[in-house]
Write a structure and sequence with these properties.
heterotrimer, A mainly alpha, B alpha+beta, C mainly alpha, B: Dipeptide-binding Protein, domain 1, 3 domains, eight-stranded mixed beta sheet, five-stranded antiparallel beta sheet, 18% strand, disordered N terminus, C: mainly alpha
Chain lengths: 469, 736, 325
């Protein structure tokens, strides 16, 4: 089947972000102090484990950022040019096709084989009965009275092996790496990794990889045949929704910072270094923005963005593009409300740096302002930027949920943790309780944010000069 | 030294506060049999009805209020001349505060009286004469209070007098007087008050042209004296006159049989000039003292607390005129026990407390806990209460039934539709070439057939709706039942019920329209239809997903253009929408109020009428003009049938559904009969207070071990801390 | 100090002006006066005439910034901006778009908001500081490590989950408190118990961790070593010296929010049906009542500035060396 790749604005920015990450990594590897700091991060098992988890999430988010449109099946001889579906899918959708298309009528519990609600159906003999109807897809392969456990065990039988293989392969690769760089025999490297005595906490990584592989394998084994996390009100698979939410969370957590970063850095450094009226003006702007309660500021801006998007509906070919524009707008707005903090920090730091000897010397030698800023100031405030980026990530992911509740979050057609919670929050009032959507959103969000928080902690400890021990 | 003392005091203060709250909470939870009772203990066992409201009532001024949520309050307070009979169905008008049904007389252009309205084109004016009950008295109100000399006590208030006064009940003296015909006339004049923006002013001015003149006069007057009371008694209103103390007469232009329905709404209720004058005094508005907040009335209840953020309370009106429970009703009412209280004096309930609930979770939980006597299942969160059968019949879920909860259902006089903008070149093409027009018509029919409304109702409303066959909702004259009532384009009659023709037929129609399998037969371009919606309600993610699924099955590409409410309104107004969801609640049970939604001169784009689809069909419009003024009967039914058939053929709407009003009540609430038109029904209801008390106690047995656990944990945690603090303090003292 | 305060307050004027201008542009970018009118009049029977009438009556028919129909100063003064935005400097908020008096509404709703926010604030402050000191006391032990992990886990949970879960557990399953509502007087304790508890728990993770870092920083200073050398017990060191010296960073974060407390919490008030300013704001946002949101923005900004001034003053109270000049 032919496809038409679609590059949504957030996709483009995600790719830019990944390039930037690579660039930063290269830069950091060349720069001795930051290499040292990163090594301190890598020494912590918790940090390495968190980073691995985040990488798994990032991989899912990346897959979900490769968008395309499918070509519609040809109309016989009448087709002159290819026609594409208006539905924008992503690589993740393609991978998860069974989950995406296997929708039931309404709620069903995890691993259930019947709907959650009773329905009156007509019996073959003409009578009527109130029963829980069988699901169309979930556990449909089971006979009516067949027990589920043997089937589950049967399907899961190969998964530990797969996970072990995966982790084992990684272990061997790592051991090779450690042996090569540490100039030690392979067996010693292997033993050190297993006993956790390497410079970087590889053992934690292996553990996480094993667990993740186990979960993924179990998902691959079961998800096409069962609704592992149940289905929601309109019968969509909750696992699918949860996986799709990841990209939205990541985009909001990272792009927001990416968008605001240039402004915050440029303005913060300019205010600190140049002083005078520039400083006054920048301070004025951020005090004004800061003094407006952020929810109100976000609400007002989101409403305005919406109007702009709505009044220019011809800008967008597909619903996905509209939703994406709105997501991007939300990131920009959150950026506007959150750049002030970083800007202030950078201004303060630059004020201090300006008075340092080597900066003074550079100035005395007649170096241009731009050169001084680029060579001496910017590299020395980068740790603040980094710390802010990692710290902001988790709070932004959390903020999305609240904003969606207030009605000023992402587009309602965008799958996100916020929209999931918002749809599911009334389900706890049901009797019996429908807990799985909420629980799935809870667990996925917790893992994501927890990993981000733990990594952020490690990064801050490693990079903050005041904490360096 | 001083600072140290200060900090210690504040610490103690904090500690004391913490202890106070903790102790109070613990104590309450420990001793109270139902610690989660949200009402004061003093109210237990009293004859009080508890209910909830979700939207803050914005206007309670009878000439302004036009919202269902506000009607809950207003109709208990204000008594219009007419009311709907509580039990009879189809809805029947009955005298409210009027002594009998009004008489209507017809006159031709020459002023000669006509025997009846059988020749509508001859009728130049109709005269409605209303006689009200003598001896009806107003609720106690400070505006009626008189001093020792018999002069009004509170007509010269100053700002100082209003100190500490935030409600009319904060005054010390009250009075009352008899209800007279002029009170009704005064209210009709208020419809034209430029300061009030009555929503029905323009509509009424068509039949009562005197209102326009009065409006102009009052606008002048308002400019001259911007902040003063306008004594409307000083301005005559052409067409409305007082016959005697208890009788008045309204002269309408032409024939307007629907006018009597309006007489059952508070727009035509009474309003004493004294109260209007009273609230016009300086300083009143700033304190939210106005008719809009404290509407006066002669009804069974009066507003005693108006806190739209938290609670609205109504109490029995001590001056309420004698009124009794009806003794006849619709078939089945006697069996349902609805006639048991025949002849007993009204009202039964002493007080009604409405609590504001913003979130559905607490609302629903409080109902299940027995703290609300009734709950409308208006929101789709409540669908767990009922289950729907294959044929759309609805039953209460088993555990609800076991609790004695009763489900009441009735079809609301509303219609909900998926409109096609007839000016859209793709789906409407109303002004295009005939071939194009026919193509669009078939496309509309195909979509009508394809969208499975039954499934929608069962998933999203859990049965709270009936699929619509045409605009008129069941229960209103003109709607046919059974086989004669089905929409033959979409349904066929099989096995004794209407069955959807299904996707095959839809695809056939689509192919006939020139889009076989959703692709243009000539160019191969896919067919894309757009739904314009807001992001809530029908635009919510779940609904949109479902619609997308339906369109996918038809092979049509479906795009949602969601926007906010204002933008959506704009699109509709400018005629830029393509597909859109809309609803209409009939103001009165007459087919005219639903069929006019497709009347050509009402087209929304341009004229801001109510025909959102901008549908124009001259034949339909001609029939509508005739149907409008006809009395109910076979002739009218015949014309309505013809109109409906035109609509089914043209399919300007996908007739979506008529919502069913579902409401749940606990077993202890008696005499509740659903019916969206009967808004003043609270006076008929009765509560078995003892049964309620018992149920509440049974359903709310607190689980106390977490409290004990928390207390133990607190002791374990806090005790060493306190001991340490003591030691530390004494150490400091020694130190210093 | 007085001169300082006056100067700070004068400096607030251009900031508030900026806030007003910003929100004004933002909001009238969203809603034309026609939209506002239609919103208030309701969709049924809202004709163009009715909209025009409403706008005239409410003063929404003026131009935004410049009124060429007027003369002299009135060219600028008789505009929407001056009428609707600048008037607030006199704390004259006027009427909401649906007609109610905003100032009165704010007065009425302040109490309930404070009743929730103040206990939450005080309790979480106390709880977080005590817990943080405890963690510091046991620093570098397993207790500290797991304490921090729990804190991080707690702050990784969305506040929505705390509220939804708390209501479900305490009110529904245990039937211990009313699930929502508000009442004055003694009954208040029953209604406030749960929101306050949830508010405290929801914020506990991040604030405990934050205070812990402050204390840890403080504890590595020389004077602490001196105090220990004097023979003071570790607990005494923590409570007497570390706590006192950590006050400045604590005050920096804490005092600035005190004036804003009465603005309430959007989420809490909405879920618990507390008739405070938070739910007022959320209603206004959802109902797009520009007049109310504009007022709340203004008050929020004023309170923020007051908070900043208070912070500075509080420094001089805890540390006499600080002089405001």
């Amino acid at each position: 089947m032919t496809i038409l790749p679609v590059l949504l604005p957030t996709d483009a920015l995600v790719f830019v972000l990944m390039l930037a990450a690579v660039a930063v990594a290269v830069q950091a590897a060349r720069h001795a102090p930051s290499r040292e700091a990163w090594r301190r991060v890598g020494q912590r098992p918790v940090a390495m484990a968190s980073a691995t988890i985040l990488l798994v999430f990032a991989a899912i988010g990346f897959l979900d950022s490769l968008h395309y449109r499918e070509q519609l099946p040809g109309q016989g001889e009448a087709t002159q040019k290819a026609v594409y579906s208006s539905e924008v899918l992503s690589a993740l959708d393609a991978v998860l096709t069974p989950l995406r298309v296997q929708t039931e009528k309404t709620y069903s519990a995890p691993f259930a084989r019947e709907l959650f609600q009773r329905e009156t159906v007509e019996q073959p003999d003409g009578g009527q009965a109130r029963i829980y109807p069988r699901l169309v897809y979930g556990a449909a392969h089971l006979q009516a009275d067949e027990a589920m456990w043997p089937d589950l065990l049967h399907r899961l039988a190969w998964t530990p092996l797969a996970a072990l293989l995966m982790a084992g392969a990684l272990l061997l690769a790592l051991a090779g790496h450690v042996a090569y760089h540490g100039r030690m025999p392979f067996s010693v490297a292997l033993r050190r990794i297993v006993s956790g005595q390497t410079a970087l906490a590889w053992r934690a990584v292996l553990l996480v990889v094993f667990l993740a592989a186990l979960l993924i394998a179990a998902g691959v084994a079961l998800a096409p045949h069962y609704h592992v996390l149940g289905t929601d009100k309109v019968g969509q698979d909750v696992l699918y929704l949860s996986l799709k939410s990841i990209r939205t969370g990541l985009v909001i957590g990272t792009l927001t910072t990416l968008i605001m970063l240039p402004f915050a850095v440029a303005l913060g450094i300019a205010a600190g270094y140049l002083g005078g009226w520039v400083d006054d003006a920048i301070q004025y702007v951020y005090t004004v923005l800061n003094s407006i309660p952020s929810v109100l500021l976000i609400a007002a801006s989101v409403l305005m963005m919406q109007v702009m998007i709505d009044s220019h509906s011809n800008w967008f070919d597909t619903a996905a593009q509209r939703a994406d524009a709105r997501l991007l707008a939300l990131c920009a707005i959150l950026g506007i409300t959150s750049w002030t903090g970083l800007c202030r920090l950078l201004r303060g730091e630059t004020l201090k740096l300006r008075e340092l000897d080597y900066v003074q010397a550079a100035r005395a030698f007649g170096a241009s302002t731009a050169a001084i800023l680029r060579r001496h100031v910017l590299p020395n405030v980068m740790h603040i930027v980094l710390i802010t980026v990692v710290l902001d990530f988790s709070s932004l992911v959390l903020a999305e949920a609240v904003l969606s509740y207030v009605g000023i979050g992402v587009d309602p057609t965008t799958i996100s943790f916020g929209t999931m919670i918002n749809m599911a929050r009334a389900e706890l009032a049901r009797e019996p309780v429908v807990w799985w959507s909420l629980a799935a959103a809870f667990v996925f969000m917790l893992v994501l944010v927890l990993a981000a928080n733990l990594l952020a902690d490690a990064v801050r400890d490693a990079f903050d000069p005041r904490r360096a021990r | 030294m001083f600072r140290r003392a200060l900090s210690r005091i504040s610490c103690r203060h904090v500690a004391a506060r913490v202890r106070f709250f903790a102790c109070a909470a613990l104590l309450v939870a420990a001793c109270d049999p139902t610690p989660n009772d949200p009402y004061p203990a003093s109210e237990r066992g009293q004859n009080i009805l508890y209910s909830a409201f979700t939207e803050r009532p914005k206007h309670l001024d009878p000439v302004q209020s036009f919202v269902e949520d506000e009607a809950t309050f207003l109709y208990q307070i204000v008594e219009p001349p007419l009311q709907y009979h509580y039990l009879k169905r189809p809805y029947a008008l009955a005298p409210g505060v009027a002594a009998r049904m009004p008489t209507v007389r017809y006159f031709d252009a020459a002023g000669r009286e006509l025997k009846d309205a059988s020749a509508p084109e001859k009728v130049a004016k109709s005269v409605v004469e209303i006689a009200i009950r003598p001896g009806v008295r107003w609720q106690p109100h400070p505006a009626f209070a008189r001093d020792e000399n018999g002069a009004p006590r509170y007509f010269a208030l100053t700002a100082a007098d209003l100190e500490d006064i935030y409600s009319p009940w904060d005054f010390r003296h009250f009075g009352s007087r008899e209800l007279v015909a002029n009170d009704f006339i005064y209210e009709i004049k208020r419809l034209a008050n430029p300061r009030l923006h009555s929503p029905i002013f323009e509509l009424m001015a068509e039949y009562l042209p005197g209102l326009k003149t009065l409006y102009a006069q009052l606008t002048e007057e308002a400019k001259k004296r911007p902040d003063e009371w306008m004594n409307l008694d000083a301005f005559p209103l052409d067409g409305v006159e007082e016959v005697d103390r208890h009788t008045y007469r309204i002269t309408l232009k032409g024939l307007y049989p629907q006018f009597l329905y309006w007489l059952s709404m508070p727009f035509f209720g009474p309003m004493p000039p004294e109260v209007d004058r009273f609230y016009s005094q300086p300083g009143m508005a700033e304190r939210n003292l106005s008719i809009d907040a404290w509407p006066p009335g002669t009804g069974p209840y009066m507003l005693v607390e108006n806190n739209p953020n938290a609670r609205m309370t109504m109490a029995k009106n001590p001056n309420f005129h004698p009124d009794t429970y009806p003794c006849e009703g619709a078939p089945g009412d006697a069996e349902a026990g609805l006639l048991a209280d025949c002849g007993k004096p009204l009202p039964f309930i002493d007080k009604m407390v409405f609590t504001r609930e913003r979130e559905t979770i607490p609302y629903w939980n409080k109902f299940l806990q027995g703290y609300y006597d009734a709950a409308g299942i208006s929101s789709d969160n409540f669908d767990q209460a009922v289950s729907v059968g294959g044929q759309g019949e609805v039953t209460l879920s088993d555990d609800m039934a076991a609790r004695g909860i009763v489900l009441l259902t009735s079809v609301a006089p509303s219609t909900f539709y998926l409109g096609f903008n007839m000016r859209d070149p793709l789906v409407g093409a109303q002004d295009a070439a005939p071939a194009q027009r026919e193509r669009a018509r078939l496309l509309r029919q195909a979509i009508s057939v394809a969208l499975d409304v039954e499934e929608y109702i069962s998933i999203f409303l859990n049965g709270r709706g009936v699929p619509a066959m045409q605009p008129i909702s069941p229960g209103i004259f003109g709607a046919r039942e059974g086989e004669a009532g089905i929409n033959p384009v979409v349904y066929e009659w099989r096995d004794g019920r209407a069955q959807r023709r299904g996707m095959v037929e839809a695809k056939r129609l689509l192919a006939e329209a020139g889009w076989p399998n959703g692709r243009d037969a000539k160019t191969g371009e896919p067919l894309i239809v757009n739904l314009d919606s807001t992001s809530e309600g029908m635009g919510s993610k779940a609904t949109v997903d479902w619609l997308a699924k339906q369109f996918r099955a038809l092979g049509v590409q479906f795009v949602v253009r969601s926007t906010d409410w204002n933008r959506f309104q704009d699109k509709i107004l400018q005629g830029n929408a393509q597909l859109f969801f809309m609803g209409w609640n009939a103001d009165y049970p007459d087919p005219e109020n639903l069929l006019f939604l497709l009347y050509g001169p009402q087209a929304k784009a341009g004229t801001q009428g109510n025909n959102s689809a901008n549908y124009v069909n001259p034949e339909y419009d001609r029939l509508f003009d005739r149907m409008k003024v006809m009395p109910d009967g076979a002739a009218r039914q015949q014309i309505i049938d013809r109109m409906v058939n035109i609509l089914r053929h043209d399919a300007p709407w996908v007739f979506w559904l008529h919502p069913k009003a579902y409401s749940l009540q606990h077993g202890w609430v008696k005499n509740r009969k659903p019916g969206a038109m009967v808004r003043n029904g609270l006076k008929y209801q009765r509560i078995d207070v003892a049964a309620r008390e018992q149920a509440r106690r049974e359903w709310n047995r607190p689980v106390r071990w977490p409290l004990v656990l928390a207390a133990v944990a607190l002791v374990i945690f806090v005790f060493p801390a306190i001991r340490f603090w003591r030691r530390h303090e004494s150490a400091t003292a020694r130190d210093a | 100090m007085l001169a300082y305060i006056v100067r700070r307050l004068l400096y607030a004027i251009p900031i508030l002006l900026g806030v007003n201008l910003f929100t004004f542009v933002l909001f009238f970018g969203v809603n034309s006066p026609d939209d506002i009118a239609r919103m208030q009049l309701g969709a049924k029977y809202a004709s163009a005439e009715a909209i025009a009438r409403w706008k005239t009556e409410r003063g929404y028919d003026k131009p935004m910034f410049y009124n060429p129909a007027q003369n002299g100063v009135a060219k600028v003064a008789d505009t929407l901006f001056v009428d609707k935005s600048l008037r607030m400097f006199t704390f004259d908020f006027g009427r909401a778009d649906d007609g109610h008096d905003i100032a009165r509404e704010i007065r009425l709703r302040m109490g309930p908001s404070l009743a929730v926010a103040l206990p939450t604030f005080l309790l979480s402050l106390t709880a977080a500081i005590v817990l943080a000191l405890l963690l510091v006391f046991f620093r570098a032990t397993a207790l500290d490590f797991w304490g921090v992990v729990i804190c991080v886990a707690m702050m990784s949970i969305s506040s929505m989950f705390y509220i939804i879960g708390g209501q479900w557990l305490v009110s529904k399953m245990w039937a211990l408190v009313p699930i929502s509502g508000y009442a004055g007087g003694l009954d208040m304790a029953r209604f406030l118990g749960l929101p306050v508890l949830i508010g405290v728990v929801a914020g506990l993770g991040s604030s405990t961790r934050w205070y812990r870092t402050i204390f840890l920083e403080e504890i590595s200073r020389d004077y602490v070593r001196t105090a220990r050398a004097k023979g003071l017990s570790e607990l005494a060191v923590l409570f007497r010296h570390v706590l006192k010296n950590a006050l400045i960073p604590i005050l920096t974060g804490v005092v600035v929010v005190i004036p804003s407390l009465f603005l309430g919490s959007l989420l809490m008030e909405s879920f618990f049906a507390v008739p405070g300013l938070g739910s007022y704001t959320i209603d206004a946002i959802r109902g797009q009542d520009f007049a109310v949101v504009r007022s709340m923005v203004f008050i929020g900004s004023v309170m923020y500035i007051v908070g900043l001034v208070l912070t500075d003053i509080s420094y001089t109270v805890v540390d006499p060396r600080v002089r405001l000049g």
